Predict the structure.
Amino acid sequence: MKIVVTTPTGHVGSRVVRLLLQAGVRPTLLLRDAAKLDSAIRERVDIVQGSQSDVEVVLRATEGAEALFWVNPRTTDGDPIATWTHMGANAARAVKDNGVARIVFQSSLGAEKRSGVGEIDGLAGTEEQLDRTGASVLHLRCGYFFTNLLEEPDALRDGVLRTAMPIDRPMPWVDPRDIGDIVTARLLSTVWAGRHVQGVHGPHDLTFTQVAAIVSRATGRPMRAEHVSDDDLRDTLRSAGLSDKQTEGIIGMSSGLRENFTPEDPRSILTTTPTSLTAWAHENLRPKP
Ligand SMILES: NC(=O)c1ccc[n+]([C@@H]2O[C@H](COP(=O)([O-])OP(=O)(O)OC[C@H]3O[C@@H](n4cnc5c(N)ncnc54)[C@H](OP(=O)(O)O)[C@@H]3O)[C@@H](O)[C@H]2O)c1
């Protein structure tokens, strides 16, 4: 069974690769730089090196594939939605031309709105591109990744977690490793077919106030959540050099989820994953002795 994994060094992809190896599969990895793979992994996989923006690379990687894990990778391009539209088209073409039977797509909470959710609009577009292929596809509508906290070194240092979301509005927070577990199970399983949507919601919905308190307990340092207005966030992002489309792509993710949003796939045994933020923060944020 040929299984193709995109972003194999990423938060979710790295977990998928490890589990596929442990399941006895030799996966095909599509990535830009094979040197970033651990040497113990490199010898156990097939590699197609190149960008997901290059249709020839995506076609080559998926030749003869039965299953594909597709992620629209984070991008620094000035127009992230345009980049994802292009990449989504590459994925859809490869699925059709190569007759890939099953695709698991790393989508996001909010994609059900289809528009008005910033960058997530680009994921909604890829869901639709993959739907049109007629292949069996699972869209994983993932909650907010715990690993986003690793990208907030200033927040961790200063003890202030800033967000444009209301700080007392609960939302699903999830360990990307747990997403990888679901991805792998679905890639390996041949008992499902058709189009499916599945939330990946972590163990509990959390407010930013609760998240700050959990991080504070894990690190032993004070932390509080603070609401920032869209205008203040816009000023910060623009002064950091982001384009208008990048800026609105980020702001839209919170403004689009703030009002009247209910996930299409509600919390259930299927959407709830085990790792708590407390356990993750102890492992990943606690100062090393
Ligand atoms: N963060 C969240 O809370 C959240 C929630 C729901 C959904 N999502 C979605 O998850 C996706 C990103 O996940 P992530 O931020 O956690 O990313 P990630 O797992 O850190 O993976 C990003 C990977 O993409 C690779 N990459 C970048 N550009 C590439 C290209 N052109 N071709 C091939 N590989 C490329 C990078 O590798 P190299 O740089 O080494 O090439 C990197 O390993 C996005 O679609 C995002 O919308 C995120």
The pocket of NAP is lined by residues 7, 9-13, 31-33, 36, 51-53, 71-74, 106, 108, 119, 123, 142, 144-145, 148, 176 (CB under 6 Å). The mean pLDDT is 97.
